[in-house]
Amino acid sequence: MADCAMTPNCLFFNDKMAHMPSTAEMMKRKYCRGDYSNCARFIVLEALGKEGVPADLAPNETEMAKQLLQADRLPGR
Predict the structure, then answer these.
(1) pLDDT (tens place) for every residue of the chain, 77 residues total
(2) Residue 39 placed within a domain
């Protein structure tokens, strides 16, 4: 699989997150250079746009991504 197209501007991939997990390199291989369709950052970006992606959202936080998407669907949003 090809690299995620979002890597040039991704805070996680470019080590710009305030608290990078110790497993960051492994996560980059799995999500950024592997199956990026399962990356929480990619999922939120696709659904809500760049401004919807929290700066501290890690690629493996898919439950948080689901919560963000559900919150966006609440009335009044």
Answers:
(1) 689 999 999 999 999 998 888 999 999 999 999 999 999 999 999 999 999 999 999 999 999 999 999 998 876 65
(2) yes
- C-alpha neighbours within 13 Å on the C-beta side of residue 46: 12
Please state whether 15 falls in left (phi above 0), alpha (psi between -120 and 50) or beta.
left
Overall domain count for the chain: 1
Expressed as residue numbers, the domain containing 59 is: 7-72
CA distance 24 to 17: 11
CA distance 45 to 54: 10
Residue 44 to residues 8, 34, 57, 65, Cα–Cα distance (Å): 17, 18, 10, 6
Amino acid identity of 7? T
User: Looking at the domain assignment, is residue 1 inside a domain?
Assistant: no
